[in-house]
Write a structure and sequence with these properties.
The chain is an alpha/beta fold. It folds into two domains: 8-169 and 354-376, Glycogen Phosphorylase B (Rossmann fold, 3-Layer(aba) Sandwich); 178-352, Rossmann fold (3-Layer(aba) Sandwich), CATH 3.40.50.2000. 48% of the residues lie in helices and 17% in strands. The protein contains 15 helices and 13 strands. The chain has helices at residues 21-34, 49-56, 72-85, 95-108, 126-138, 146-155, 178-188, 209-222, 237-246, 262-268, 283-290, 303-306, 321-333, 335-352, 355-376, and strands spanning 8-14, 38-44, 60-63, 87-93, 112-116, 140-143, 163-165, 195-200, 226-231, 253-257, 271-274, 295-298, 314-316. The strands form two sheets. A seven-stranded parallel sheet has the order 3-2-1-4-5-6-7, sandwiched between helices. A six-stranded parallel sheet has the order 10-9-8-11-12-13, with helices on both faces. Strand 1, helix 1 and strand 2 (38-44) form a beta-alpha-beta unit. The chain starts with 7 loop residues before the first strand and ends with a helix.
């Protein structure tokens, strides 16, 4: 009896350990590949949320500490890992992991793929732009949106044909019962008749929370029974709380910190808001749309590729609190419109931004590299 051929082993390398959109893509992609015809090992520079999440999903993780740009020991550790685990391909995410992963892939003579998830200021330094241009000559680079691909070709100088687009994908969360929604309301001190606006994202400047808070007084004047919930943690937590106090809306805003029950929170929301100043392709926005939530998002990054204006949601100008407030009030004024956006948004995610579609496209890319390698051999 012939035995099954060994599964191809993919090494995913991540610059950060999250939590964040890129890290959630890595964990969901790794889990799906593991249950298919491949085996995934996730290599991290440091422990954190991504390690815990991968272990929860039964994806093997290995910490290879990186201390400084000339840490030769890291390359020896990674090469030993590649030999021991018989790694066939490296798939790295974001700048540092892409640079280190590409170098070690050349040393190990195995294919390399690098996914760019956001703009992240890598283009501001000449040496980083040069690094990406060199890598693009021998590796496959992936951008998570057409907007990001265009940005990279223009700012970094990579030829259009050297980078392709694979959209992030999500799987709708489990259904949340009405009883569970009511429990969540009670826990957060939200009254039964209150409207709930919500957002999910790290509390950093680029996420635009300050403009959402600035929009709230106008919304509350028109709809006083409205509550804003903000899930996420970050360096701006104290300044944002101070801003809410200055605006006199602190009783209407709930800062929830890092949460593990995002499906419950989404079920509670009437409208999901993404006020970001920059995005690659927002996982939070995708998850909200998959949960049939009407969305208001800023016209940045891949947001307009997700949200079809007037069909699956509303798009507003970034850093414009007045326009954001007007869009939120229009949503709250028209329940039928909210329901329409929620349904059409969920259908759009299912058709174009599903986890299955993302995994399928990456798997095809892996197979193409393997076929190319075998042909060369």
């Amino acid at each position: 009896m012939s035995s099954q051929p060994p599964k191809q082993t993919i090494l995913h390398l991540s610059t950060t350990s999250g939590p964040g959109g890129a890290e959630r893509v890595i964990s969901s992609l790794s889990e799906a590949l593991n249950t298919g015809g491949r085996r995934v090992v996730v290599g991290l520079f440091r422990p954190g949320w991504l390690q815990a999440e991968c272990e929860r999903l039964r994806v093997e993780t290995i910490i290879m500490p990186l201390s400084g740009p000339l840490h030769l020991g890291w390359f020896f550790d990674c090469l030993r890992l590649i030999r021991r685990e018989r790694v066939a391909l490296i798939h790295a995410h974001e700048f540092s992991a892409i640079v280190y992963g590409w170098i070690v892939s050349r040393l190990a003579r195995i294919p390399f793929i690098g996914t760019i998830h956001g703009k992240n200021y890598f283009w501001e330094k000449a040496r980083r732009r040069v690094a990406y241009r060199i890598i693009a000559r021998t590796a496959t680079l992936v951008a998570v949106s057409e907007d990001l691909k265009q940005f990279v070709t223009e700012k970094v100088g990579i030829q259009n044909g050297r980078i392709r687009v694979i959209y992030n994908g999500v799987t709708p969360g489990p259904p949340v019962s009405d009883a569970e929604v009511e429990r969540c309301r009670s826990e957060l001190g939200i009254q039964a008749g209150d409207r709930v606006l919500g957002t999910v994202g790290s509390l950093y400047l680029v996420k635009g929370h300050t403009f959402l808070l600035d929009a709230m007084p106008a919304v509350l004047q028109r709809f006083p029974n409205t509550v804003l919930i903000i899930a996420g943690r970050g360096e701006l937590e104290v300044p944002l709380k101070d801003q809410a106090k200055r605006l006199g809306i602190e009783e209407k805003v709930r800062f929830l910190g890092m949460r593990q029950d995002i499906p419950r929170l989404l079920a509670l929301m009437d409208v999901f808001v993404l006020p970001s100043l920059s995005e690659g392709l927002s996982m939070a926005l995708l998850e909200a749309m998959a949960a049939e939530k009407p969305v208001v998002a800023t016209r940045v990054g891949g947001n307009p590729e997700l949200v079809e204006e007037g069909k699956t949601g509303m798009i507003v100008t970034a850093e414009d609190a007045e326009e954001l407030a007007a869009a939120l009030m229009k949503m709250l004024e028209e329940p039928t419109l909210m329901h329409f956006f929620g349904r059409t948004g969920a259908v759009r995610v299912q058709r174009k931004f599903s986890t299955h579609r993302m995994v399928e496209q990456y798997a095809d890319l892996y197979s193409a590299h393997s076929a190319s390698l075998n042909t060369v051999a």
